[in-house]
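Continuing the series of single-chain predictions for the mutant panel. This is the parent chain; the variants come on the following pages.
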Amino acid sequence: MKFEERRCTFCIHRLSRYIMKAISLYQLAPALALALLAAGCCRPFETPGSSTQEFAFRAGSTLVIVETQTWNIKKQLPQFREVVELTYNPSGTRLALSECARNDIVELETATYSEVAVPLESDRCPDKITYSPGGEDLAAGVLRRPFHVSGQHPLDTFVGDVKDLKYHPGGAIMAIATERNLQIWRVIPAYEKIHSFDNIRAQCLAYSIDGTRLYVGVETGCLVLDATRQYVPMTRFDMDPVTGITPDPRGYWLAVQQAKQVKIYRTPDLRLQHNLSFPQATKLVETVFSPDGATLAIGEQSQFIHFYRVAGWQKIHDYPFEGNLWCLAFRPDGVVRQPLVFVHGHSVPAGPVWFEASGNSSFADMLKLHPDIPVNAVFLQLPLHGNEYPENYTTGIAEHAQDMLALIEGGTDSRLGRHAGLINFPAYRANGRVAIVGYSQGGINSRYYVRRLMGSRAAYPITVSELILLATPNHGVGGVFSCGNDTQPDLALRQLCAGHTATVGSQNMGCNACGIFAPLLFRSNTGGEDSLLVQLNGHSFEQDCTPGFQLAAEAPFSKPGNPQGILYVNLYLPGNGDLVVGGATPSLDCMGRRQARMHAPDVHNRELNSLPGPSHEHFVHDPIVICTVLKVLHSHAMPPESNQVCSNIKRKKA
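Parent structure:
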């Protein structure tokens, strides 16, 4: 039996077990929905597979280029005998290597791997090299010699012996670890050292893909510095010495290398997810992700480079070599990817919302199975609300939207952090837009950004390609649980309640028929809570109660009305099954607040059942919801309304 047939048989067998369990636990309807997924569990999207990837390594006295599809050697370059560092430019068209036999840096073009340039000639070995995010500069540290940058922004200056160096993904900042300290340099418009931390002796460095964090490996563990707030410490992991830090280029994971193990953390909250351990006699040299984030390569000092499939962290290949391994690098695939900004809801942080299955699945689980979807994930962590977070009671929707503005377009956020702006990063500049997935209040934060702030710091008015809303209170919340406290201290919740309380009476009167049960204003209102949703939607709550009411302005910049506009996708539970935000029609609030459906004709409103049971908190973890979002991101269009939406989508094995 072929591997793919065995995999499909295994997948369907495991699904059948869950179907039987679902029949006993959740009755027939959810079980049928799970059964519909079986048809597509064994196939990816029907698109061409990714091109063959290449990796380069130096072991012994030979530089070797290998194709990952066949594991065959594409090129051997024995003339480069003492290569200690490898780095590809962002487009993958050039490979730069530090050649200690010649004490210089050599650039090879990657079509034939022939030598095309020598950016640096020295009398000592350049042992740390890296390209700038735009590929216009090549930086190098040389032992006991000036720090050197060649290209459009040349530089020669003494900084100390360089242990590691990394460019901020925005390209205008560089972090340099020396034997004495950690230095932060401004590169553009002119070189200037802007921070120096003499108490940090870094061994290795890495920026997060959104540029908000600098990860620093030290002898006693790993530091995380806030790159938006003058590099103040955020957290610290105490562990054995860290020898390498590698972010997943798609934004989901962080690999932290030590002498004999690699720990995998999820990026939003840096919670440990997996530990890849090796025998005591092993010493690890380098850990790198493939450009599509689907594969993790771990090179040991002798014998093997180990390759793991990120989906499941299972080993897929051991590549043998002779001699000692010195360096390892994947060639970039040249795919232009788009930032995908995930915005969590009111009181649950990004990690649990997007990574934890909660009985079903998760966006992280499903997206790591699909490196063919050309997006890089950015998990925005906003201030949380609820009784556990009284420090955020004065923070509202406008402040959260300002945080989105700073992340996407650059500038200052609501907490005085400074961002370069995703659309300004060289990797994303050609596309110039982000996709947004907002869950619950995260959808309202996103809509506020689009209506009130989008384009205010950009060179063009529209910065969003798709706005995907999941169980979003598009017209507010109106239940006693959410709005029953007339002295509610939380500004964001008062705004979601439209500045009005709720009572048992207001929940039981018909829409626009409140009478004596009309909700009162919160006594704790500070001004504007009752108007935010009205201004966001462009109409009064009474019109929510009008059957068939439509208003294009409720979804500004929307396509197809604006051919270059935003694709709006709005997903929610059917039949007002969501007791928090409602569904297609107003219910359980005489003001008309509980209605998730949007009134704009361009919006793709769709009801989707949630498993294992209809609820607000389960909706974001439901496979059918996630499949629908994946299809939108893949095709930039709303898929046909069908229970087969998960066909041709891989699912995590049970």
